[in-house]
Amino acid sequence: CSQSDDTPYANTSESSAEATATDNTTTNDAEATDDTTTDDATNADANTPVTTEAEGDMIRHTLANGRISIAVPAAWGEPEESTEEAPVSIFNEDTTAFAAVTEIGPAALVPDEEAYIEALENNLGLEKGEVEDKGEVQLNGGSAHRYDMTVSGLGAQIYAVQVDGVAYEITLMGTDAEAGSLKAILDSVLIK
Length: 192
What we know:
- The protein is an alpha+beta fold.
- The protein contains six helices and ten strands; from the N terminus they run H-H-H-H-E-E-E-E-E-H-E-E-E-E-H-E.
């Protein structure tokens, strides 16, 4: 796998239900996200800059607002450039595994599970029924709704999380050979 427009990373930027949540926002909401003026409330809600800290053979990536942190193997190298929408996005060294934290938008705009699945299928170009609803799962600090699928030949799990009124997705993708690394990443997730 090489990193091109049809790699898992390229697809995950479109994989979330973000399009559905964003469709329900006003133009002013979208502009507010890009607004460079800040105040104390905005700074407290910012996802970036992401801080990193070594934890043995893992590197912990923590959002600036502290809502979510995730640790990935140090061998995976440097993450993609952080943005407010995708503060953590990182491949392993041979691009056979991927982990990301993505902000979807206000939690109040997240659709129900059926509509969420439909949004994932549409955004990923998957057929109806290719996204499996695995239900609620417990993560360290909170619960998430898990969705499983195959994207660009890689097994993918998306964990939909809501923290402080904001919806996020934690995406893990990889080959079967990367299952141990992906489980370690999932076990490392901390939710505020």
